[in-house]
Structures are given as C-alpha cells and as structure tokens.
TrEMBL record:
<dbReference type="GO" id="GO:0008289">
    <property type="term" value="F:lipid binding"/>
</dbReference>
<protein>
    <submittedName>
        <fullName>Gastrotropin-like</fullName>
    </submittedName>
</protein>
<dbReference type="InterPro" id="IPR012674">
    <property type="entry name" value="Calycin"/>
</dbReference>
<dbReference type="InterPro" id="IPR000463">
    <property type="entry name" value="Fatty_acid-bd"/>
</dbReference>
<comment type="similarity">
    <text>Belongs to the calycin superfamily. Fatty-acid binding protein (FABP) family.</text>
</comment>
<dbReference type="Pfam" id="PF14651">
    <property type="entry name" value="Lipocalin_7"/>
</dbReference>
<dbReference type="InterPro" id="IPR031259">
    <property type="entry name" value="ILBP"/>
</dbReference>
Length: 125
C-alpha cells in the first residue's frame, strides 16, 4: 500500500519540453497538479486533477490493462512493478512511478534522439 495517498506537485523538470515533444504544449498549466492514488493490493486507481481537468486510469500490476492517455485516447499496455517502481509504456512515452522519501516520483521518458525526461516530485498532503 506504499503508493496510496494524495499528493501535490512539489517540483518538476523538463515540463514544457515534454509537452512540446508529445504535442500538448497547449495543455501547459501553472496549477499544482494533485495526484490521488488508491491501492488495493495490485489494483490501482490513479487520478490527476487540476481545476477543470481530471485524468484517471485503473490498472492491475502484472496484467495488460486498457488505459487512457492525457488526450483521452484508449490503448492497451502491460503494467509491471520491479523494485517498487510501477512501469507503463504509453504510446508517446515510458512512465514510471515510485515512492522515495515519502514522495511520489513520476518520470516520463520520450524515445529517440531528441528524447526528453520529464520528472515530477509530489509531496503527500
């Protein structure tokens, strides 16, 4: 149950660069994203919220799951966990999440020569 809780954005790296690479620069916001994670064993509900926008996925570690991108496109991908780190291959980037020093650390890495590593550190609230 290490992931369960509510978190608020504390710091981030390469946010604008990441949005540019995935074509979502118009979605840039200065609001602090709130991430809420519900965990029941290997079953998760992962929700991110800012005013006027909510993005949520339900998944089970160790299974292929139907997920939704930030733009609402559905896709299927296996969800894995190794060493306490959740890993999901989204269509445009590879997502990982882990708890480090009681903070939720999320990283999105885009592929290729001009790949970008976007990192968010979220504190428990």
């Amino acid at each position: 149950m290490a992931f369960a809780g509510k978190y608020e954005l504390e710091s981030q790296e390469n946010y604008v660069e990441f949005l540019e690479v995935i074509g979502l620069l118009s979605a840039k916001t200065d609001h602090k994203v709130v991430t809420e994670v519900a965990q029941d064993g290997n079953n998760f509900t992962w929700t991110q919220t800012i005013p006027n926008w909510t993005w949520s996925n339900k998944f089970t570690v160790g299974q292929e799951c139907e997920l939704v991108t930030m733009t609402g496109s559905k896709f299927k991908a296996p969800v894995t966990m190794e060493g306490g780190k959740i890993s999901i291959q989204f269509p445009q980037y590879h997502f990982t999440a882990e708890i480090s020093d009681d903070k939720l650390v999320m990283t999105c890495v885009t592929p290729g020569e001009k790949g970008v590593t976007f990192k968010r550190i979220n504190k428990r609230i």
